[in-house]
Amino acid sequence: MRIARFSLDGNVAFGVVEGDAETEGGPVLDIIKGHPFAEFERSGQKLPLKQVRLLPPVLPNKVVGVGRNYAEHARELGNEVPDVPVVFFKPSTAVCGPHDPVTYPSFSSEVHYEAELAVVIGRLCKDVPRERVKDVILGYTCGNDVTARDIQRSESQWARAKGFDTSCPLGPWVETELDPSDLGVMCTVNGEQRQLGRTSEMVRSVEDLVVHITGAMTLLPGDVILTGTPAGVGPLAVGDEVAVTIEGIGTLTNKVVKRD
């Protein structure tokens, strides 16, 4: 099931996405009663997807990022695979949605894309045992861990490098029925492929990460875990269109703009 969060005439709601681009009339949204973090009913009121504005599929309290979780990516930046996961945060203010602009920060001259599988937490959880991980996950979406690489290199903490406004595009929706163990992850810039990997190449699996992170902190419904990026990261420029595609989910597209 694909669950989207959207806006129409100033009203925000969730809906189940039905159909695809090949469906006559295109995909539609069946508006749901309530929110997806509890049992819900479909209203039966349907809207063409093209008539609404897709928003970030969730508004996380926190985004927990995981660094160097693909060995090839660690090596391309001159790093070793860490003995334990490298965990960092992106604030909620970093989150933006499909087709929202990514604003190039004024304090950086080297901003990179990082295509990632994003895990969306479905319920409050702490100290999750491995056998219960699936129970706390609502689903998965596409993420782009946009990073000011020059700032990351120059500062020991990654807060500015990875936490600036619009540095965390998420979308286009949450796919709730998906096996995350071996999915294709691709990034294109202006239609040219830059990254291509599979989640089976992750050093630590989704289960590993949820167990590790919840051993330290409570995750809330709507929180997001970014699971790391494959090799092939590189720079973005103002005017670029960057797209993250994950097998079984869809494509998240954003354009890079200059800060006013």
From TrEMBL:
<protein>
    <submittedName>
        <fullName>2-hydroxyhepta-2,4-diene-1,7-dioate isomerase</fullName>
    </submittedName>
</protein>
<dbReference type="InterPro" id="IPR036663">
    <property type="entry name" value="Fumarylacetoacetase_C_sf"/>
</dbReference>
<dbReference type="GO" id="GO:0016853">
    <property type="term" value="F:isomerase activity"/>
</dbReference>
<keyword id="KW-0479">Metal-binding</keyword>
<feature type="domain" description="Fumarylacetoacetase-like C-terminal">
    <location>
        <begin position="62"/>
        <end position="257"/>
    </location>
</feature>
<dbReference type="Pfam" id="PF01557">
    <property type="entry name" value="FAA_hydrolase"/>
</dbReference>
<feature type="domain" description="Rv2993c-like N-terminal">
    <location>
        <begin position="1"/>
        <end position="57"/>
    </location>
</feature>
<dbReference type="InterPro" id="IPR011234">
    <property type="entry name" value="Fumarylacetoacetase-like_C"/>
</dbReference>
<dbReference type="Pfam" id="PF10370">
    <property type="entry name" value="Rv2993c-like_N"/>
</dbReference>
<dbReference type="GO" id="GO:0046872">
    <property type="term" value="F:metal ion binding"/>
</dbReference>
<dbReference type="InterPro" id="IPR018833">
    <property type="entry name" value="Rv2993c-like_N"/>
</dbReference>
<dbReference type="GO" id="GO:0018773">
    <property type="term" value="F:acetylpyruvate hydrolase activity"/>
</dbReference>
<keyword id="KW-0413">Isomerase</keyword>
<dbReference type="GO" id="GO:0019752">
    <property type="term" value="P:carboxylic acid metabolic process"/>
</dbReference>
